[in-house]
TrEMBL record:
<feature type="compositionally biased region" description="Low complexity">
    <location>
        <begin position="14"/>
        <end position="24"/>
    </location>
</feature>
<keyword id="KW-0648">Protein biosynthesis</keyword>
<feature type="compositionally biased region" description="Polar residues">
    <location>
        <begin position="1"/>
        <end position="13"/>
    </location>
</feature>
<keyword id="KW-0810">Translation regulation</keyword>
<dbReference type="GO" id="GO:0003743">
    <property type="term" value="F:translation initiation factor activity"/>
</dbReference>
<keyword id="KW-0396">Initiation factor</keyword>
<dbReference type="InterPro" id="IPR001040">
    <property type="entry name" value="TIF_eIF_4E"/>
</dbReference>
<protein>
    <recommendedName>
        <fullName>Translation initiation factor eIF4e</fullName>
    </recommendedName>
</protein>
<dbReference type="Pfam" id="PF01652">
    <property type="entry name" value="IF4E"/>
</dbReference>
<dbReference type="InterPro" id="IPR023398">
    <property type="entry name" value="TIF_eIF4e-like"/>
</dbReference>
<dbReference type="GO" id="GO:0006417">
    <property type="term" value="P:regulation of translation"/>
</dbReference>
<dbReference type="GO" id="GO:0000340">
    <property type="term" value="F:RNA 7-methylguanosine cap binding"/>
</dbReference>
<feature type="region of interest" description="Disordered">
    <location>
        <begin position="1"/>
        <end position="24"/>
    </location>
</feature>
<dbReference type="GO" id="GO:0016281">
    <property type="term" value="C:eukaryotic translation initiation factor 4F complex"/>
</dbReference>
<comment type="similarity">
    <text>Belongs to the eukaryotic initiation factor 4E family.</text>
</comment>
<keyword id="KW-0694">RNA-binding</keyword>
Length: 231
């Protein structure tokens, strides 16, 4: 267990961290909590729930707004995040349902103006590691650890998602510029570098993780056209 995980656990359960284990492991996320505790996040965040439907693709697209629920509209600091995170029934998330943590003002859909030209890194994470993996990428995202490496590319990390699958979770990190190869590569490397060693993917390719532009998804064009008509 890394120091950041020990800090996390002790936040909700002071007895969960032993002094010996805290001194024998080095954290990959040093100073994150030290930086965050006194200050609000640079950006405010919202938590969304996306309920899967078995309807046809066309019907699902038309009914998307009724499937997307705003759970918490303003996560502005680490204390608020843990009030939401620690009280969420993660074990109750149904198969193919998704939880998103996104910048406030950006909806977690391809057709949102901030997302249309973007894409995401997607990680297939085994069930026994999925919650820890999502927890870490969410903290790294909100703490601007990902954003810092994209500043010079004028790119933005807009959110993270976790979607329940049968024997794994599909965990995504969304960025704004899906055609900027330097930005995409920098985000990949930062995710891999900052994750705890035991959570890092052990392979490459579609069985482990991959990048996909939103425009490459079936239904993207229809969703954007519908959003343009509505607006």
């Amino acid at each position: 267990m890394t120091k950041v995980q020990q800090t996390i656990k002790s936040e909700s359960n002071p007895a969960a961290t032993s002094p010996s284990s805290a001194t024998t492991r080095k954290s990959l996320h040093q100073n994150i909590f030290g930086k965050l505790r006194p200050l609000p996040f640079q950006y405010h965040w919202a938590v969304w729930y996306d309920k899967h439907t078995d309807a046809t693709k066309e019907a699902a697209a038309q009914d998307y707004d009724s499937r997307l629920y705003l759970l918490h509209e303003d996560v502005s600091d680490i204390a608020t995040f843990y009030r939401v995170y620690n009280n969420y029934p993660w074990d109750k998330v149904r198969l193919r349902d998704t939880v998103h943590i996104f910048r406030k003002g950006v909806r977690p859909v391809w057709e949102d103006p901030e997302n249309r030209n973007g894409g995401c890194w997607r990680f297939r994470v085994p069930k026994n590691k999925a919650q820890e993996f999502f927890h870490e990428v969410a903290i790294l995202c909100m703490a601007n650890e990902f954003q810092a490496v994209l500043e010079k590319e004028h790119d933005h990390v807009l959110g993270v998602s976790t979607s329940a699958r049968f024997n794994s979770n599909l965990i995504s990190v969304w960025n704004k510029l899906g055609d900027n190869e330097r930005s995409i590569k920098a985000l990949e490397q930062t995710i891999l570098d900052r994750l705890s060693p035991e959570l890092r993917p052990t392979g490459t390719g579609s069985t482990a993780y991959f990048y996909k532009r939103h425009a490459e998804n079936d239904g993207f064009t229809e969703a954007v056209e519908k959003a343009s008509t509505v607006t």
